[in-house]
Amino acid sequence: MDRQLLDFTRRALAAGAARAEIAAALRAAGWQDADIGEALHAFAEVPFPVPVPRAQPYLSAREVFVYLVVFVALYTAAYNAGALAFHLIDHAFPRRIGSRIYVSATLLRDIRWNISAILVAYPVFVVLFRRINRAIARDPARRGSRPRQWLTYLTLFITALWLAGDVMALIYNALGGELAVATLLKLATVAVIAGGMFGYFLRDAREAAAP
C-alpha cells in the first residue's frame, strides 16, 4: 500500500473526518477506489481518540507452503480433468484417416494416469481448502493473506489466458469450417473448467479487496 496514502488517511481520521469525506477527497485527487478502500480498511472502526490500525496478515513459511500445495493440487486436478475429458471425447469421436479410424495406442494409459492424478490431487485440494476457509470464517483478516492474494491473481491470469485461447481456437475453427462435434466438446470443456475457476477466484479477490 502506498505510504503517502496511508499516512494521509491516518491523519484525516485522527482529525475527525468521516470516511465518506476522506474517500471523496481522495477520489477527487485521482486515487482509485480499490486503493482508497484498502487505506480506509487498514484502520478499524472503533471508538478511540486516534485511528486504530487493523492487524495485518503476516507472511509465514508454513502459510506459503500450505497455499502452494493447495494451488498446485488445484492446477493438477484441473489439468488432468480437462485432459481426461479430451481423451474420452477422442475415444467417443475417433479421427478418420481416409477410410480408417485412428485411435491412439496410448489412450488407455493416458486415461489411467489422468484418473490417478485426479484421485490424489483433488482430495488434497478439497481438504486443505476447507481448512483454510474455516480459518478465514473464524478470523476474516486471514482473507488478506499475501500468499493467497498472489496465487489468486496468478490463477486469474492463467485461467484468463486459457479462456482467451479457447475463444481464439473457436474462432479459428469456425473460420476454417471445422466445427466438428469433438472440437466443440473440447472447447466447452475448457470453458467450463477455466471459466469456473476464473469466476470463483474473481469473486474471492473482490471480497478480499472489499473494505
UniProtKB/TrEMBL annotation:
Presence of keyword NAD: no
Origin species: Acidiphilium cryptum (strain JF-5)
Start and end residues of each DUF5671 domain: 63-200
Protein's name according to its UniProt entry: DUF5671 domain-containing protein
Keywords: Membrane, Transmembrane, Transmembrane helix
TM helices/strands, residue ranges: 64-89, 111-129, 150-173, 179-202
InterPro entries named in the record: DUF5671
Keyword DNA repair found: no
